[in-house]
Amino acid sequence: MAIELFDRGLSQMDAGDYEHGCPALRESLRLSPRAGTVFTVAECEARWGRHASALAHYDDYLSRLGRMSPPDQRKQRARELVARKQLLELKRLVPRLVVRLAEASPGSAPAPSSSRGTVAWVLAGGGALATLGGLTLGVLAIGQKGAIDEHCSGHLCDAEGTSAASRAQTLGLASTVVTSAGLAAIGAATVLWLTAPKRGTESAKLSPRPTAWAGKREGFIGLEGSFQ
User: Residue 159: which residues within 8 A CB-CB, separation 6 or more?
Assistant: First the structure.
């Protein structure tokens, strides 16, 4: 069944029918989680314009590649080069949270702490809403289980079951990305609030850049820059 779905999905992808090809490939991946299938799903989603999902699957493919034996890794060399190149390109397309605070120049007046506090509150509010939205997407993904149980028997699913499984995977991935972005915003707000100068004190010289990115294999929430 997994092979049939893969062959059908690959043919549809090559024909430009990503709307049907990508879900078929994802279902094939669910039934038989092979590295080559992960790569093909990533390729299909990248062509379809589903950049965040493609990014996560390329990342997952490279993770699986790292666990292969050296001979198997050499066989995957061409795919590895494509995956690494696509990963760099897609990271530029997928939105990232970046907050920049200008470092105080010599002789300049200290920045009012209230402005940094305002940014912190805005980030915290947006982060809370994004986290809530991500959790809602997660609930919707779990809600597909009933349709999957009803229309799937073991590894065999009818059209409705395949569609439900595809929706569950897409919603689950979206939940991870949106929730991670929301938590990153809350983390950035916390940093801004804690580093805001107290009234009547000199403004600290710093240039932190809170950044966040979430993939299926890994994610990053933290600060880039330096403190003086």
Answer: none
